[in-house]
Amino acid sequence: MGEQTRETFGSRIGFIFAAAGSAIGLGNVWRFPYLVGAHGGAAFVIVYLIMVFIIGIVCFVAEVSLGRHTRQSNVGAFKAIKPSWGPAGLIGITAGFMILSFYSVIGGWSIYYFFKAFAGFPAADPVVCNEMFNAFVTSSAAPIFFHALFMLATIYIVYSGVQSGIERYSNIMMPALFVLIVILAIRSMTLPGAGAGIEFLIKPDFSQITGEVLLAALGQVFFTLSLGMGSILTYGSYLGQDESIPNVSTIVPLMDTLIAFLAGLVIFPAVFAYGFEPGQGVGLVFVTLPAIFSEMPAGNLFGAAFFFFIILAALTSAISLLEPPTAYMMEEHGWERRKASVVIGIVIFIVGVFASLSMGVLSDFTIGGMVIFDLLDYLSGNWLLPISGLVTAIFVAWVWGTDNALQEATNDGTIEFAWGSLWANVLIKYVAPILITVVFLSSIGVIKVGV
Ligand code: PHE
């Protein structure tokens, strides 16, 4: 509420770790590798990299600037610039709410897999590992128990506040996560026969680039950089006044990209070394990798390290999904942080229980042909996220205005923003809104993009 009581990050590195923690998550370790596998390897990686630059960093600058300028989270930020736009912020809040409800279920699976990995996965056979995966996710009590554990940790951190919760735990978890992924990548890349996997990631076959690949890459950029749902905007509202927005907005996406690439270097060399298929889709992490770990020397240790890495990555993202609705209740409804984080966290947990059960006992209950889990994923990812991203880009460029936004992004002209005029006159004004619109229309099937 009052300006003087607003929490902030204690340091620049605190913001960077927290924002990188938000960005680096299941999107990097689970979604990115399976998209790379399904879309032909290096060609996808290159398209993805281009998208990070022409749209990811562009929208990142916009969200951080809007957040820091208004010192408000989603709804309040829009309202502060133009009161009638307040409700626009609710789209992002809703998307974050929905994403967290099933994201936390997957976070719970990772905790279970961490213990399973220690004990040793059943066999070096994806069919057996697939059975194990299915038996677990379709059961009722166990996944809900782990979902509860994951949500409890998320609530606890957000409950503890910006500096003593989010910043403090990000500062511990992010360095641990970097160390783990580097060790795992070295292990994977030194397996006999790993070369083919490395090649798969870095040697592009440009004939693989199709309209579908472009769309998948763009959607991934949004999801992986946590754009469109107020996470980055809200973290931006806690960023110190002297920090360089262009600077942090470039570092965080680059860190995120580096981790996605390293996750690829963990997964693909191992997949190729053990003669598995890279295009396994969503089962890559929870089915193919367990099969590999059960064959790899000391596979239970590396497996446990891998799933611990996923837990850390998912947890730092989950807190950034709980923070915007928490901040919203604090700013707009005068709730205390503690009450807001606990109440919202419990509601999200309950929605997640239904998402989890929809894999098993509730699998006959469908809406539009989708079980609850898939529905939450579909609605948030294909509808709310792009709409909210589009609204934010248009709002910053055309309502707030690029002159004002640029003023904020350059700390009133006192710091350098080398590509600032390109950002203001071309990228955020035209390129971002147009590309997001194309992705949105095609993801809901209104237009078909083909090459
Ligand atoms: N960026 C996170 C990931 O890659 C997911 C996320 C999306 C987190 C939106 C916060 C907001 O897993």
Ordered list of secondary-structure elements with their pairings:
Blueprint lengths: L11 H12 L2 H13 L3 H29 L3 H8 L6 H32 L6 H13 L2 H19 L2 H28 L5 H8 L8 H14 L6 H6 L8 H29 L9 H13 L3 H35 L3 H21 L14 H38 L10 H24 L8
The chain binds phenylalanine.
List the main descriptive attributes of the protein structure presented here:
Hydantoin permease; globular; binds phenylalanine; mainly alpha; 451 residues
CATH H-level name... which superfamily? Hydantoin permease
Order of helices and strands: HHHHHHHHHHHHHHHHH
Helix proportion of residues, in percent? over 70%
Straight-line distance between termini: 50 Å
Question: What is the CATH topology?
Answer: Hydantoin permease
User: Compute the gyration radius: what is it?
Assistant: 21 Å
Our count of helices gives: 17
Which structural class matches the secondary elements? mainly alpha
The low-confidence runs, each spanning 5 or more residues with pLDDT under 50, are: none
Biggest sheet statistics:
none
The CATH class assignment is Mainly Alpha
The proportion of strand residues reads under 5%
> How many discrete structural domains?
1
Quick structural summary:
With about 450 residues, the protein is an all-alpha fold.
Structure description:
It is built from 17 helices and no strands. Helix 5 (88-119) packs antiparallel against helix 14 (299-333) and helix 9 (195-202) runs antiparallel to helix 12 (245-273). It has helices at 12-23, 26-38, 42-70, 74-81, 88-119, 126-138, 141-159, 162-189, 195-202, 211-224, 231-236, 245-273, 283-295, 299-333, 337-357, 372-409, 420-443. It is mostly helical and 451 residues long. The structure holds phenylalanine. Phenylalanine binds at residues 22-23, 25-28, 99, 223-224, 226, 229, 231, 317, 320-321.
